[in-house]
Structures are given as C-alpha cells and as structure tokens.
C-alpha cells in the first residue's frame, strides 16, 4: 500500500531528500508526500515544486504541520539537536518515524528517543545510508557468504582533503570532533555490520595537524573489539593531503579464515587462500574482481522503501532505532575514549545511560 509521508526539513541535506531520495518512491507508488516543513520560505517553496505539492501542504511550523496533516510516518531531516522535539510531536499522534542520523546529538537524548518510540508502540529507524550504498552492500554480501569463512579483522580508511576552512562546510570546522561525528558515525556502523556483532571496546586517539583549519580534531585512529572476537581498525582524516579515500570512495578490508575481501574506490576484490600451499603472497589488483550488486534503489531511497515494507508487516529495518543505539554508542564511546585517553567498554557505556529504566 502507498504510505503517506510528512517530511520535515527541506534545506541543506533535506534538499537532497526532496530532489533525489523521495521522488523514486513517489514514482513507484511506495509513498505519497502529503506535507512539507521548513522554516525558510524560499527553501520551502523550492521543495514544494520538487515534490509537486500544493501551497496548503507546506508549513513553516512543525507543530502546525502535525496538527494539520494525517500521515503514516514522518521523515526528519533537521539538525540532530532538534530531532527529539520532532519525535515528541510525532509519537502522540501515532506517527512512525524515519530519521536522519544520528538519532540525536547526545547519548542521553538518543536513549530517550529510543525508549519513547518503544513506549508509544511506534516504529522508528535511522537512515544509515552509507551502509546501504551499492559498493558496501556488495562487500557485505561477499563477507556474509560461505567462501571466506570466519571474520578475523575489519579495517576502514576514510581520508579527505578538507583541510582549508569552509571546504567541508563551515559548521564542521567549528566542531570538537568533526571526523568522528560526521564521518565515523557511518564507518563504525559499517564495520560492526561487517564484523557481525556489537562492539564491546573502543580505544580512539584523535588530534589535529598544524595545517588543518579546524577548531577540533580532524584525525583519528581507533581500535575496536567485537562480541564475537573480531577486531577492527579505523583510520579517519579530514585533513589528508590528497583525498585518497574521500566520501563514497572509502577503503574497507575484511580478513577472514579463508580469504580477504577489499573494497577500494567502489571496486570489490576477493583473494582466496589455497589450502594446498604452506604460504602464499598476493597484492591488491591481482585478486578476483566482484561485480557490484544490481538494484533500482540504494542509500536513502532503498531505506525509505524498506521502512515502508516494515510498516506493511515485513522484517524490521536493519537500522531500527533500538539496533542503531549500538552505532550511536560506538560513536559517543569513541569520543569519550579520545577525551579520556583510554579504552571505553561500549556496552557498559550504553547501559550507563539506561540506569533506572
């Protein structure tokens, strides 16, 4: 059935929702956008035209929109600090929620939101879109199969040349931990997915090289342990000299019992161990090239479709808010580790915010 959507936020990243992510699902009948909210009149009008809405379906006030529009779910694309206020408007009206990452701007608010959604009996999920890109989905498909065997380590490198002020939008240059908050939020989520278990411990070290025009730390290296014994290494930088593994062109490597899988610049390559040999050597570029999975939708558009399937009685979205708390806990535990200079036990860290619940 076609699900009715109230969309909150048409500026910034919200503009991409109006232009790119929502329309494919409107076109195939998955959703009908019945309302749009933004405080900026010019942005609101642009979104209205992109979505083909009537003026009376557009609002500058979120409360007015929720009071006026009947929808099955809302999509939240506002600054994270505002997420909880929108959630508090949606849940009393029995409206399900699909929100941009992260759940909220703090661990405390993230836990509150997850618990509120559960108490209200409403479904909520978070658009961890990078995990559902075509190349990352292909790598996950390879790793989850039988050919490579048990996973041993997961590695990720994300390096961008955003060292000059305002090259990564001004607000990120003013943040305390821009690479962790804006980059690792996705990459740690993918690493846990590839590891196949929740993270139990994370040790992060962060810093800022002299040439980085930021207030906060642009570089981070993190070591992780997962509940099934898998180990992880993350390397992130917003001030790398050449943008070697920029957004959408990240490097991931999964070492497993019987082989290695590498994703680099959207190409997936697999190496298989020859059990007849005592030892062997190899090099990147000489393995088995894997064709990317085919599909009509990826990233946000796919998650919107899967969320609607969940509402229709299908399987829960992999990024449902309760499971996504694990990713949020990894992120904020990494920040805590970088601040304290020692490892942080992620599950204990998460539970410390749920005491008394």
Automatic annotation (TrEMBL):
Task: State the Pfam families in the record.
Answer: GFO_IDH_MocA, GFO_IDH_MocA_C
Q: Which residues form the Gfo/Idh/MocA-like oxidoreductase C-terminal domain?
A: 143-346
Q: Which residues form the Gfo/Idh/MocA-like oxidoreductase N-terminal domain?
A: 4-126
The superkingdom listed in its UniProt entry is: Bacteria
Checking InterPro entries in the record gives: Gfo/Idh/MocA-like_OxRdtase_C, Gfo/Idh/MocA-like_OxRdtase_N, Gfo/Idh/MocA_Oxidoreductases, NAD(P)-bd_dom_sf
| Any one GO molecular function term | nucleotide binding
Q: Which PANTHER family match?
A: BILIVERDIN REDUCTASE A
Q: What is this protein called?
A: Gfo/Idh/MocA family oxidoreductase
């Amino acid at each position: 059935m076609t699900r009715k959507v109230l969309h909150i936020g048409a500026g910034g990243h919200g503009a991409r929702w109006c232009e790119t992510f929502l329309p494919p699902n409107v076109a195939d009948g998955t959703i009908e956008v019945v309302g749009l909210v933004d405080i900026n009149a010019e942005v609101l009008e642009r979104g209205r035209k992109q979505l083909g809405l009537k003026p009376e379906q557009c609002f500058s006030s979120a409360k007015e929109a929720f009071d006026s529009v009947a929808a099955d779910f809302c999509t939240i694309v506002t600054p994270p600090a505002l997420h909880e206020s929108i959630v508090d408007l949606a849940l009393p009206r029995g409206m399900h929620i699909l929100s941009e990452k992260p759940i909220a701007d703090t661990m405390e608010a993230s836990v509150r939101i997850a618990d509120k959604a559960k108490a209200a009996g409403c479904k909520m999920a978070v658009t961890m879109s990078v995990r559902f890109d075509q190349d990352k989905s292909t790598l996950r498909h390879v790793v989850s199969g039988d050919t490579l065997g048990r996973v041993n380590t997961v590695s990720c490198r994300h390096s961008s040349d955003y060292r000059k002020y305002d090259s990564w939008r001004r607000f990120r240059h003013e943040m305390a931990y821009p690479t962790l908050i804006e980059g690792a939020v996705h990459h740690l989520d993918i690493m846990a997915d590839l590891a196949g278990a929740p993270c139990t411990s994370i040790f992060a070290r962060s810093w800022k090289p002299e040439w980085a025009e930021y207030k906060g730390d642009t570089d981070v290296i993190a070591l992780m342990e997962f509940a099934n014994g898998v180990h992880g290494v993350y390397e992130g930088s917003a001030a790398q000299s050449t943008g070697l593994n920029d957004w959408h062109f990240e490097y991931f490597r999964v070492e497993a019992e019987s082989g290695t899988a590498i994703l680099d610049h959207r190409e997936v390559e697999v190496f298989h161990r020859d059990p007849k040999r005592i030892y062997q050597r190899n090099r990147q570029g000489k393995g088995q090239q894997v064709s990317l999975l085919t599909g009509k939708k990826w990233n946000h558009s796919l998650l919107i479709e899967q969320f609607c399937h969940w509402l229709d009685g299908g399987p829960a979205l992999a990024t449902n808010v309760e499971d996504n708390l694990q990713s949020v806990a990894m992120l904020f535990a990494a920040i805590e580790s970088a601040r304290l200079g020692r490892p942080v036990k992620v599950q204990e860290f998460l539970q410390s915010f749920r005491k008394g619940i």
